[in-house]
């Protein structure tokens, strides 16, 4: 499956619940986890450390993961 056609990875203001299928979940989470690992490594390599390149960068990683996981958790809760 092409990741760009995965509704969990398409940046948009509205969650595309009607387009999300079970087969989208694992590839989306895998992709976002891999990206998060790269971003954590980038944070580790930053010097000097600042609020923006450390704390804010970790918060951005958290929000990106949440953007993929939250719709899945919601759909699981309402099924």
Description:
The protein has 79 residues and is mainly alpha-helical. The longest helix is centred in the last third of the chain and has 28 residues. Helix 1 packs antiparallel against helix 2. The chain is built from two helices and no strands.
Largest sheet: none
**From the alpha-carbon coordinates, what is the Rg to the nearest angstrom?**
14 Å
Which residues sit in consecutive blocks of at least 5 with pLDDT less than 50?
none
Binned, the helix content reads: 55-70%
What structural class do the secondary elements suggest?
mainly alpha
Sequence of secondary-structure elements: HH
Number of helices: 2
Task: Tell me the β content.
Answer: under 5%
Mean pLDDT over the full residue set: 93
- The 3D shape can be described as elongated
Strand tally is 0
Span from first to last CA?
24 Å
Topology (elements, then pairings):
Elements: H1 22-44, H2 51-78
Helix pairs in contact: 1-2
Question: What would the keywords be for this entry?
Answer:
mainly alpha; 2 helices; 0% strand
Kindly summarize this structure in a few lines:
The protein is an all-alpha fold and 79 residues long. It contains two helices and no strands.
